[in-house]
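Re: that backbone. Tokens:
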């Protein structure tokens, strides 16, 4: 089993920045992918960004150039630096870890972009 705990969400004004963190615990596999997804009210969950254990990254179209995903020194942590936030970024952000053909999800953290 794997547990994921997100932190760093909150309320920010348009144009501002936030940094989300996700820490995984439990049985870790060296081959894995971690990432962030988000879900706004009335919309489907969508990809924000992912990063593999080799450092390969993927980004959703709407966040390219504004968000940056990275790994911590510990293999089990991942960060999402969000810059130039816009109201359309408002959503619950979920951390996900994929390993051994299984997906694990965090409980989510709310990000609200509003003046």
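Recovered sequence:
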């Amino acid at each position: 089993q794997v547990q994921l705990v997100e932190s760093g969400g909150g309320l920010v004004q348009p144009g501002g920045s936030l940094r989300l963190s996700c820490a995984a615990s439990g049985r870790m596999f060296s081959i894995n992918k971690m990432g962030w997804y988000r879900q706004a009210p009335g919309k489907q969950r969508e990809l924000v960004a992912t990063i593999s254990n080799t450092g390969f990254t993927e980004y959703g179209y709407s966040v390219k150039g504004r968000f940056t995903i990275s790994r911590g020194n510990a293999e089990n942590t991942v960060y999402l630096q969000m810059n130039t936030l816009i109201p359309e970024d408002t959503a619950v952000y979920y951390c996900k870890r994929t390993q051994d053909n299984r997906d694990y999800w965090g409980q989510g953290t709310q990000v609200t972009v509003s003046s």
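The first strand starts at residue 2 and ends at 7. DSSP finds no helices and eleven strands in the chain.
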